[in-house]
Amino acid sequence: MPTLVSSNKFRLSYLSVQTFLKLGVSGLGSSILLWTTHLHAADLPAKETSTVQTVEVSGPGATAQRKNDTAAKIIVNAAELMQYGDTQLSSVLKRQPGVSVVGNELRMRGLGSGYTQILLNGDTVAPGFSIDSIAPELIERVEILRTTTAEFSAQAVAGTINIILKKGVNSARKDFKIGIAHGENNWNPSLALEVADKNGGFSYSVTSTLSKTGYESLPQVIESIYDTSGELKTLRLMQQKNIADVWRFGLSPRLNWNLENGDTLSWQSFFDYYGNLNGGSDYEATVKGDATQYPDNNYLASMHTAILRTDLNWAHRLDADSKLNAKLGLNYNHREVDYNFFGYPSPRDQAFNRHVISNAAESSVSSSGKYLSRFRDDHSLALGWDAALTRRTEARLQFDRAANSNAVGEPLVEDYRANVRRIAMFAQDEWDVTSRLQAYLGMRWEGLNTETTGRSMVPVQTRSSVWSPVMQLLWKLPEQEKDQLRFVLSRTYKAPTPRSLVPRRYTANDDNGPTNPDYQGNPQLLPELAWGADLAYESYFAKNSMFSVSAYVKRVQYVTVQNLYEQKMVEKNLDEQKSVWITSPYNHGNAKVMGIEMDAKFALQNFLPAAPPLEVRLNAARNWSKLDAIPGADNRLADQVPFTANLGMDYKRSERQSFGVNFNLQTGGNVQATSDLRTYTGVSRNLDVYGLWKLENKTQLRLSINNLLHQDVLQATEYNGPDKHTMRATRTPASATIRLQFEKSL
């Protein structure tokens, strides 16, 4: 078995990871066959154009609206959300300019780990919130803002994605959708119903969804350990199996009243409940060296999550030139998890059992509002507030039973409570400086106070406040009606999450090591602060067509990096002492972030009149970053995605038939996470297609196929320490998903 160690420094690459996996798989076919046989799963007024103005990209006049808005944004409307028949929002947004998806985490400018702000109806979501918990049928539009505005929270170093739920309509309608999909060895049905009506000054809409999502994945893992001379000491091959079934129910009602005095009142709620039953197994074949503590293990887990958000909005017109909007919101999230891990030592005997019962709940009350006023014909002023009180509690009870023993150790009980108080005030002005120059000026002050207490921790209180100025300029070039420039200067920040502040240890049940460490929070974490500048050129060369190229640069202070260390610990419930690898976040140094982005939309007939009616979408983004606290050529910030690109085409054959295709590319590569730890992520290529047939009686049929290339997912981690060299590489096979959906307006 050849080693992958160079003369000076081990470097991960696509070739080395792929070769490593192929050698392990093909060269040891008998071992793989052995794994397979042992697989098992435990079973305003006139010019009220504030920065939150709604724009629909694909509708008539949408391109002109994007052209004239002082604060640039991209809007993904309901039709685009449903175009490919996606059941997950992340699948839709990965096709948008500058947006990438890692797992189910949305990233703008390639940055994850909290740098991209996710909002729901303009409000921040709870930590750990998954955008895929919201079915696309519940969403009216998604706003993508590359930079911050004073009205929204400034926790948007990379940008903001604002999800707007469906509202009332001008006419009655009843829409019904039923679909069936097959992918990852599972049949997944879905059902959606939307009802809306209007009677005088009252209107309502109710959207509900019910779906089942299942998957089966078979990751293959190779782990190797070398000594300081480069000699292979340990080689382990692992075949994993993960299966899951997720049932989800979503409901989004909205009521609107137009009162006699001209006021409007609206109430909107969002309820989502899902149950997740999942299990898996891991069988290890030790080719050389020692096996892990539990070379044969499996797990079974169930999770139940409920999310409830409700908002009451009031709009009051004070006079012809001013208006007051106010909102009161209540939010509640609750999660319960029951987890069992069974680890069999070698030889296989009575298993070590770890049973964990945990729950987390978060409740909050919020108030926000703004006063809008038009004055001197060329200013639109907005003053506002945004405040919230949030309480998060988490409890965890762990029981361990040693292998070959019926005695259960002393339970490990952990809990913590975090109270977060947030208050913000903002002012913003949209100013028509000249007929060709528009300016947006904003200032936001935001303060955070977090108090954390727990059973096994010293009480911690952190306070922070940030002033966030923002300036956006839109200059329509002289003697040009089609071309314009945008410039933005802003200050943003990223606050630490409760999970990263609480010094609780999240453990790896088996094979703890530098490439698979435990995680522990740090109560001393500070917010990261960033100054950024954006410059963009836009050309609107034809109707509903545009071309844009932009560049950005940011400087981030107090960057959060990971500290990887080895610690001697005593497992109280097992009365054993062992060496444990732990990673913990801390603030260290600064970072530079920069990038360029291109976005184009046009009809092919603009250039070739004889061409078929083909609409083309093309976008690409290249991102760079560098941390001064971590050595190495690949010291990118937060596993930044270097490059994303999309090429999409829509063909309307007739009024009743249309087809489309989209190719998505997302690169990965090496990242120097710490001075000793490197990670690698393979290239992702996705090809999606759809067809839409409009039948009689307001009925249509949609067929879509996602991930036609079904490219395997490659990931690897490498630790190069003073006493050993460890690599862990994973290949996860992927599959295509075909979906058929029947849609009817009743």
TrEMBL record:
Q: Which family does it belong to?
A: Belongs to the TonB-dependent receptor family.
| Pfam families reported for this sequence | Plug, TonB_dep_Rec_b-barrel
Signal peptide extent: none
Q: Where in the cell is it found?
A: Cell outer membrane
Q: Which UniProt keywords apply?
A: Cell outer membrane, Membrane, Receptor, Signal, TonB box, Transmembrane, Transmembrane beta strand, Transport
- Locations of Polar residues compositional bias? 509-521
Q: What is this protein called?
A: TonB-dependent receptor
In this chain the TonB-dependent receptor plug domain maps to 69-160
Q: How does it sit in the membrane?
A: Multi-pass membrane protein
Specify where the region named Disordered lies, as residue ranges.
502-521
SUPFAM superfamilies xref list: Porins (SSF56935)
Database matches in InterPro entries: Beta-barrel_TonB, Beta-barrel_TonB_sf, Plug_dom, Plug_dom_sf, TonB-dep_rcpt-like
Q: PANTHER family annotated for this entry?
A: HEMOGLOBIN AND HEMOGLOBIN-HAPTOGLOBIN-BINDING PROTEIN 1-RELATED (PTHR30069:SF29), TONB-DEPENDENT OUTER MEMBRANE RECEPTOR (PTHR30069)
Q: Start and end of every TonB-dependent receptor-like beta-barrel domain?
A: 264-708
